[in-house]
Design goal:
It comes from Gaetbulibacter jejuensis. Belongs to the glycosyl hydrolase 2 family. This is Beta-galactosidase. The structure is a single chain. This protein is of the alpha+beta class. The chain folds into five domains: 121 residues, Immunoglobulin-like (Sandwich), CATH 2.60.40; 138 residues, Galactose-binding domain-like (Jelly Rolls); 273 residues, TIM Barrel; 69 residues, Immunoglobulins (Immunoglobulin-like), CATH 2.60.40.10; 180 residues, Jelly Rolls. An eight-stranded parallel beta barrel has the order 25-26-27-28-29-30-31-33, surrounded by four helices. The chain has a seven-stranded mixed sheet with strand order 32-45-46-44-57-51-54. The chain is globular, with a radius of gyration of 31 Å. 48% of the residues are buried. It binds (2S,3S,4S,5R)-3,4,5-trihydroxy-6-oxo-oxane-2-carboxylic acid. (2S,3S,4S,5R)-3,4,5-trihydroxy-6-oxo-oxane-2-carboxylic acid binds next to loops.
């Protein structure tokens, strides 16, 4: 909406500028389209910004992602009409090192992939001609640029907007770490009054001259409620700092997640004749945030429990080059879930998103990517310092930002380091502390009204070194019930910490298990990747945090699944701890959070991540969770009422007597209802009635829905007469032993969860199917991995290599299917292998794996009745 301006009080030129904005002389435009990109400067292709060269290869099993150089070039025409203007290029983010050339001459080099940088290019331009911009981008490992190491993919490329900025010789400074050239500070903010001070930097690219500065504050309706004029004399070729203090505003409307009321600050610079030179604006939100080690987080003097998410910026099929509109949908989804806080992890995200947090009412923790370890090089220290300067100065004016951070799990690599001597480790601790102190001081100096933060992993080193007491708020990233111990241990740990360090304010800055929507089980277990385990962990954590007043809050890891190239979770190269999938389809747990956090409108969700094509066996009941923010709900199945239920902790859990075929669940309150239909294949035990296809996930306690074949592989069991199961052998996989069991990237398949669990030492498996002709598919993989290939794991243990050869013959009903199957020898490492055969039987199928050497292994069986 156009602000309502009282023209009478403005100089003529300002009136003209407001009425005819084209009269303003500063201009910033994106130049994102039609860049040429090459990896070798020989073969060029046309691309648009945002762009990354790792959107595909970071998910490719064979290639791994290319970390190295990428070249970009583009021509821009500059007219001599603009010869009195000053030109800048602004790169909003290039990962991770960029060298910019204009017409063949080096203009700048920038290190760090997540903050913006500007370069002034005026003297390098040719007028009335095309000018060549070239950018050499490097995302190879660089010991001087954080992050050195982290659990996310470092996609290379120019992945945020590139802007061409053209300004008159006097303008709001573009030189202060690519900030907007002004910084908003609030003073004496309370319910009764609120003060605003603005520090403004103005660059003069000429000899001494007079200018005029005009600042106004508009309310949300566009009414001007404050204005300040200031005459200036700008020194020759200097940057001037101007401080403007507005008289306090009475009875201000405060900003909060529930009422994100925003004022607007508008800044106008004009020359001595009143001609407008430059304009800027910013959101203003009156709020003050504090933390208390006993009572938690306070906003505007009121306690509020911070409950929200961490967010990574990448997105399925886009890498980090995600269109901004798609990214904005994330923020809406997060708000819709009822969250009141986002930790933008582990680096600054697009500025547009912070602006959206201002508007929607979400508190923000933002940080720079100093993750897992540091080095003691001078350059690393300098780059870290510059990065935090850029970060704070570029993100300072968003009222949603209340927390500035600078390190995550900075002792992670040290804790796992088995090579360095004690002396070397001590030296690294000292270096890390030195950098932490330096950055803490810098952050407090640059952002004196913000809360400083840092996050650590489960290790005493954060206490021993005292690093946890540097920031005003310390975040623990805790994975009890995943990498460590049990879900219930969270509260105990936090209580102990609180007791030992009563002056320290705490946040649970990360938590959560991996979860794959294709995996479900009645008996959720650690590391099974089931959505049921995800529900169990999050629901318990929420309870444990909300019942502890000293905890400021919790931010789930992670809002969405994200790319982490070296990982082999149930989907390889993806960290699956998201509340929503990589393409942002919500997992059930997202809706559970909504049911406990958002009470604005009645809400019901039937948790059905895993119900697609479900197979159930005879009388089996399956527990279904229903999520709602209502107190009571009525539930019916296939038109028959199952009764009324009390909702506790947002949940009603019901063992559902599903029938074979389509089932419809209806959940209702007085004036609101929700319905879902699902397909169940109920197979009757002991006679295989309703049986057409039957899949078993060998060695697993969970169901796996295989989308490509549209079938659910049921959990394994010991043989029961007339039914199916193993006669010997033992489960080997994710849940048997943490290290053995960590999921690995299995090649040649998308059905990892089927392969990742298996039976070892099984020589006989029986299915008592009726007479018929069957197609039988057997799934195999050699499960042992070398310790060096062990994936990212926060536990202290390592796996041992005991790679032994296994050779076995495969028979079905005494018919030889495969002689001397030797998976390790005949196939590449961790390669999914299937064997298929048609077998006619009078009664039953008996699979025999006759060992010649070592213990036989098998991952799955799928049988299809042909007639
Ligand atoms: C952590 C890290 C985060 C990882 C996460 C995980 O503690 O801070 O970067 O992605 O654990 O999933 O292991």
């Amino acid at each position: 909406m156009m602000p309502h301006i009282k023209y009478k009080t403005l100089p003529l030129s300002l009136i003209l500028c407001v009425a005819f904005p084209f009269l303003c002389f500063s201009l910033s435009k994106t130049i994102n389209s039609g860049w040429q990109y090459s990896e070798d400067k020989t073969h060029w292709q046309t691309v648009n910004i945002p762009h990354t060269w790792n959107d595909k290869d970071a998910f490719d099993d064979e290639s791994g992602y290319r970390r190295g150089l990428g070249y970009y070039k583009k021509q821009i025409y500059v007219s001599s009409q603009d010869k009195d203007q000053i030109f800048y290029l602004k790169f909003n983010a290039v990962n991770q090192e960029a060298t910019v050339f204009i017409n063949g001459k080096k203009a700048t080099n920038h290190k760090g992939g997540y903050t913006a940088f500007n370069v002034e290019i005026t003297s390098l331009l040719n007028f009335d001609a095309y000018n060549l911009i070239e950018v050499e981008v490097d995302n190879s490992h660089n010991d001087n640029i954080p992050p050195l190491d982290a659990d996310f993919t470092f996609y290379g490329g120019i992945y945020r907007d590139v802007e061409l900025i053209k300004v008159p010789k006097q303008h709001f400074s573009l030189k202060d770490f690519a900030s907007d050239g002004f910084y908003v500070n609030y003073y004496n903010v309370s319910n009764d009054k609120a003060g605003v001070k603005v520090d403004i930097l103005i660059d003069n690219f000429e000899i001494k001259t007079d200018a005029h500065l005009y600042l106004e504050i508009l309310d949300a309706e566009g009414n001007r409620i404050r204005e300040e004029h200031q005459g200036l004399t700008l020194k020759s070729y200097k940057t001037e700092t101007v401080k403007v203090t507005f008289p306090k505003i009475k009875n201000p409307k405060l900003w909060s997640p529930d009422h994100p009321y925003l004022y607007k600050l508008q800044l106008t610079l004009s020359d001595k004749n009143g001609t407008i030179l430059d304009q800027k604006q910013s959101n203003l939100g009156f709020r003050w945030a504090t933390v208390d080690p006993e009572k938690g987080f306070f906003l505007n003097g009121k306690p509020i429990k911070l409950i929200g998410v961490n967010r990574h910026q990448d997105y399925k099929d886009y890498g980090n080059a995600v269109p901004i509109d798609l990214q904005k949908q994330d923020i809406h989804l997060i708000k819709n879930m009822g969250a009141n806080v986002i930790r933008f992890a582990h680096y600054p995200h697009s500025r547009e998103l912070y602006k959206l947090c201002d508007e929607l009412g979400i508190l923000v923790w933002t940080e720079i990517p100093i993750v897992n370890k540091v080095t003691d090089s001078k350059t690393f220290f300098e780059v870290s310092d510059t990065m935090q300067n850029e970060h704070i100065k570029q993100y300072y004016n968003y009222p949603s930002v209340v927390m500035f951070g600078y390190m995550n799990e900075i002792f992670l690599r040290l804790a796992f380091d088995r090579k360095s001597s004690d002396k070397e480790k001590e030296a690294l601790k000292t270096t890390t502390l030195k950098l932490a102190n330096q950055l803490e001081d810098l952050t407090r100096k640059l952002a004196p009204n913000h809360i400083t933060v840092m996050a650590g992993h489960l290790n005493e080193v954060y206490n021993d070194t005292g690093i946890a007491d540097l920031p005003m708020l310390f975040g623990w990233n805790l994975y009890f019930g995943w990498y460590d111990a049990q879900i219930e241990d969270l509260g105990k740990f936090l209580d102990q910490q609180h007791q030992r360090f009563p002056k320290r304010s705490l946040l649970l800055s990360e938590y959560g298990p991996g979860a794959d929507v294709r995996i479900f089980t009645k008996t959720p277990k650690k590391f099974d990747f089931s959505t049921n385990y995800q529900a169990k962990l999050h629901q318990s954590y929420y309870k444990q945090i909300t019942e502890r007043p000293f905890m400021t809050g919790m931010t789930a890891w992670n809002f969405a699944d994200f790319g982490s190239e070296f990982r082999g979770d149930a989907i390889p190269h993806v960290n699956q701890k998201g509340l929503v999938q990589y393409d942002r389809t919500p997992k059930d747990i997202y809706y559970w959070y909504k049911s406990v956090l958002d009470d604005k409108k009645p809400f019901i969700n039937i948790a059905t991540d895993y119900l697609e094509g479900m197979t159930l066996i005879e009388e089996e009941l399956f527990p279904i969770q229903i999520y709602s923010n209502q107190n009571d709900v009525n539930v019916s199945l296939n038109g028959k009422s199952l009764g009324g239920f009390k909702v506790k902790n947002g949940i009603v859990s019901i063992d559902m007597p599903f029938k074979n075929g389509n089932n419809s669940i209806r959940v209702s309150t007085e004036n609101f209802s929700e319905e879902k239909t699902m397909q169940v294949n109920r197979i009757e035990a002991f006679d295989f009635k309703n049986f057409k296809r039957f899949g078993i996930n060998l060695g697993a306690h969970f169901n796996f829905y295989d989308e490509a074949q549209n079938i659910t592989f049921v959990p394994d069991q010991e043989y029961k007469k007339g039914w199916f199961g193993y006669k010997d052998g033992s489960a080997y996989g994710m849940t048997k032993d943490k290290n053995q069991g960590l999921p690995h990237n299995i090649k040649n398949t998308d059905e990892e969860p089927l392969f990742q669990t298996l039976l070892e030492g099984c020589t006989k498996y029986q299915l008592d199917v009726p007479e018929g002709n069957y197609n039988i598919k057997l799934y195999f993989v050699e499960p042992q991995i070398k310790p060096t290939e062990n994936i990212y794991n926060l536990s202290e243990e390592t796996s041992e290599s005991n790679k032994t050869q296994r050779i076995f013959d495969v028979y079905i009903n005494d018919i030889l299917i495969e002689k001397q199957l030797n998976l390790a020898q005949a196939y590449p490492e961790k390669y999914g292998v299937t064997l298929q055969a048609n077998i006619q039987t009078k009664k039953g199928l008996t699979l025999k794996l006759n060992a010649i050497e070592g213990l036989p292994v098998i991952s799955g069986i799928l049988i299809e009745k042909l007639d």
